[in-house]
Write a structure and sequence with these properties.
The relative contact order is 0.14. Helices cover about 50% and strands about 15% of the residues. It folds into two domains: about 210 residues, Alpha-Beta Complex (Spore Coat Polysaccharide Biosynthesis Protein SpsA, Chain A), CATH 3.90.550; about 70 residues. The chain is elongated, with a radius of gyration of 25 Å. With about 325 residues, it is an alpha/beta fold. An eight-stranded mixed sheet has the order 7-5-6-4-1-2-3-8, sandwiched between helices. The longest helix has about 35 residues. It binds uridine-5'-diphosphate and magnesium ion. The site of magnesium ion has 5 residues, from loops. The site of uridine-5'-diphosphate has 17 residues, from strand 1 and helix 3.
Length: about 325
């Protein structure tokens, strides 16, 4: 099955305070897509930007109404929700996601499409050479490692948003109604023929990353708790090991009490053990809280985002 030129391509771009990058993005993205000689639409989701991003998007829509669509959120819901809103509204059969800050060069899009044409239903980009801080790079290597061990999601680079998908995968993502999700991983779970290609990665053109340390931690918690119960199971196993250890300790103490008489030494050792076990309990409560929180969000089934206005394509 090959994507003929008649097949509509949807390009999805989340935008949050990117006024400094949008002009360059427009100048580089549109020529690449025009040169493809296939029908396409670009959907920008303005994720509650506080700067002039929406004005720039509106101007771009006025300049290229044939292919430009804009979804405007009333507030900031995060990158993945912005992409989700575009997924729920797009019309294409082949879909590409990328960042607005030009860390994903638009010139790489044809590479992904070539893989889709070959027959893959999901093509992930992996960054050949990352241009992020050392901390980001190593933190993401660590999370990659945890994810590989606890889920059966196999991808070289989960953090790269430059990806292409066939429509059925997007439909499955939309139907799953996921909350706090990690789109590359979710897409992978629905794919039957995933592929990967190496892509360039540049430094952010302007501005700073929208991910604070806290947001990154949240995102990675979501990645793990959204896809696997392994942390709960590991915790239970650890708790069982602790119980076995405690039982042993009780037996030793009982033996000493009976055969050696009353002793008061080792009180501080006992404190150490008690504090350690208390902190383990607290981690357990937090962990359960993560899952209960997720369950709460799903059960509450409140609207996940609100679109305050939309600019559609015009012939
Ligand atoms: N983004 C968004 N909402 C947010 C944070 C980010 O739509 O709350 C967009 C942002 O405009 C960019 C992409 O998501 O297009 C990636 O964000 P960023 O460059 O800050 O992340 P990083 O590259 O550091 O992972
Ligand atoms: Mg970026």
């Amino acid at each position: 099955m090959s994507a003929a030129p008649t097949v509509l391509l949807s390009v999805v771009i989340p935008v949050f305070n990117e006024e400094a990058n949008l002009p360059t993005l427009f100048a580089r993205l549109y020529p690449v897509l025009d040169a493809l000689q296939r029908r396409y639409e670009i959907i920008f989701t303005n994720d509650g930007s506080a700067d002039r991003s929406f004005e720039l998007l509106r101007a771009q829509h006025a300049a290229r109404p044939d292919v430009t669509r804009v979804i405007d959120f009333n507030a900031n819901y995060g990158q993945h929700m912005a992409i989700m809103a575009a997924f729920e509204n797009l019309r294409g059969e082949v879909i590409v996601t990328l960042d607005a800050d030009l860390q994903n060069p638009p010139e790489e899009i044809p590479k992904l499409l070539a893989q889709i044409d070959v027959g893959y239903d999901y093509v992930g980009g992996f960054r050949l050479k990352r241009h992020d801080s050392l901390f980001r790079t190593y933190a993401s290597k660590f999370v990659n490692f945890v994810r590989r061990r606890t889920t059966n999601i196999e991808m070289t680079d989960q953090g790269c948003m430059l990806r292409a998908y066939r429509r059925p995968i997007i439909d499955a993502i939309v139907r799953s109604g996921a909350i706090n999700t990690f789109i590359p991983a979710l897409a992978y779970t629905f794919s039957s023929h995933p592929g990967e290609v190496g892509v360039q990665h540049d430094e952010r053109l302007a501005g700073v990353s929208n991910y604070s340390f806290y947001k990154l931690i949240r995102l990675n918690f979501d990645l793990i708790t959204g896809f696997t119960l392994a942390p709960l199971q590991l915790f239970t196993m650890f708790a069982m090991a602790c119980s076995a250890g405690s039982l042993l300790l009780v037996l030793v103490l009982a033996y000493r009490r009976l055969f050696l008489g009353a002793e008061a030494e080792g009180v501080f050792t006992l404190f150490g053990i008690v504090f350690f076990l208390l902190s383990v309990c607290m981690v357990g409560i937090g962990l359960i809280g993560e899952y209960v929180g997720r369950t709460y969000l799903v059960v509450r089934s409140r609207q996940r985002y609100f679109i305050s206005r939309q600019l559609d394509t015009k012939e």
